[in-house]
Amino acid sequence: MGAYGGIVLQLFLLGTFMYGLKIKEIKLSLLVGTLSQKFIIVPIISAIILSFTSLPLYVQGVILMEMMTPLAVANINLASLYNCRPKDTTTLILLSTIFFIPILFLLSSILSKFYI
Q1: Please, where are the H alpha helices in 1-116?
Q2: Measured between alpha carbons, how far is 45 from 32 in angstroms, rounded to an integer?
Q3: How confident is the model at residue 50 (pLDDT cuts 50, 70, 90)?
Q4: For the chain, which terminus, N or C, has the lower number of CB atoms within 10 Å?
Q5: What pTM was estimated for this model as a whole?
Q6: pLDDT tens track for 62-75
Q7: In whole angstroms, what is the distance from residue 89 CA to residue 79 CA?
Q8: How many Å apart are CA 53 and CA 104, to the nearest integer?
Q9: 71 and 40 in contact (C-beta within 8 Å)?
Q10: What is the DSSP letter of 50?
């Protein structure tokens, strides 16, 4: 039951910070740096590392897909707990989720071509 309480708290915090969200206030360098690491740099490094393993291609594809998932709502807990730019964190979570939707179609075609 504690996990469900945690999920409710995280979604409540997400809604609280999204209420006063202004996307234009986020620094472009923070947005580009975070999203390029999440969707470009980490997956490329992961694919290189996975190519040296003896894991089945299906498992490699699953791990690669995990590396490209959007930022987690749990990051808001840490940002609000330590007062480390919780509104910027909320904006990054929202935008990474929005950007992940079209990337998901590209990722599925890449995975079906090379990994499955």
Answers
A1: 2-19, 28-36, 42-51, 57-67, 74-81, 86-114
A2: 18
A3: very high
A4: N
A5: 0.77
A6: 898 888 888 887 77
A7: 7
A8: 24
A9: no
A10: H
